[in-house]
Automatic annotation (TrEMBL):
Organism, as annotated: Vitis vinifera (Grape)
Residues covered by the Helicase ATP-binding domain: 66-164
Region Disordered: start-end pairs: 1-21
Gene giving rise to this polypeptide: IF4A8_0
Function: RNA helicase.
Source organism phylogeny: Eukaryota, Viridiplantae, Streptophyta, Embryophyta, Tracheophyta
Domain remark text: The Q motif is unique to and characteristic of the DEAD box family of RNA helicases and controls ATP binding and hydrolysis.
GO molecular function terms attached to this record: ATP binding; hydrolase activity; RNA binding; RNA helicase activity; translation initiation factor activity
Name of this chain's protein: ATP-dependent RNA helicase
Keywords (A to Z) from UniProt: ATP-binding, Helicase, Hydrolase, Initiation factor, Nucleotide-binding, Protein biosynthesis, RNA-binding
């Protein structure tokens, strides 16, 4: 066991050194390594009027992450718990949805059922005034019920890889 752990640590350090040496700015197309625009308010972001109702001020991660996500850019963010990461990507997804289309427009995969259900809850809360339909497909639920709900049409499906 100890040998496996050492190998894992060695692989991790090797991966980190390889990542530090990469030139991400100009490889086969355009890569954005940073996004300079910081929006101090939700109004500055140009979001749908009914999105984020009741939330006064964006957190630091939301100030930097929502707009690039809405522009279709790849966004990788890391922050401590409770900083608004889930609301950041949920807002970006909800901003891009066409509520009038009664079909799935976004699929969110989460590593655990608990996280999938938390994401569904946040997505429902943020999309409450947008009439967005969200459903989570996770283990331990009735598959026929999931099928019925999905057949009726949902905008966003949140789930765990084992359920797909």
């Amino acid at each position: 066991m100890a040998k496996s752990s050492e190998t894992s640590n060695s692989d991790s350090h090797q991966h980190d050194s390889n990542m530090n040496g990469l030139d991400l700015e100009q490889q086969e197309g355009e890569f954005l390594t940073t996004y300079d625009e910081v929006c101090d308010t939700f109004d500055d972001m140009g979001l749908k009027e009914n999105l984020l109702r009741g939330i006064e001020k964006p957190s630091a991660i939301q100030q930097r992450g929502i707009v690039p996500f809405c522009k279709g850019l790849d966004v990788i963010q890391q922050a401590q718990s409770g900083t608004g990461k889930t609301a950041t990507f949920c807002s970006g997804i909800l901003q891009q949805l066409n509520e009038e289309l009664g079909q799935c427009q976004a699929l969110v995969l989460a590593p655990t059922r608990e996280l999938a259900q938390q994401i569904e809850k946040v997505m429902r809360a943020l999309g409450d005034h947008l009439n967005v339909k969200v459903h989570s497909c996770v283990g331990g639920t009735v598959v026929r019920e999931d099928q019925r709900i999905l057949s009726a049409g949902v905008h966003v499906v949140v789930g765990t890889p084992g359920c797909f």
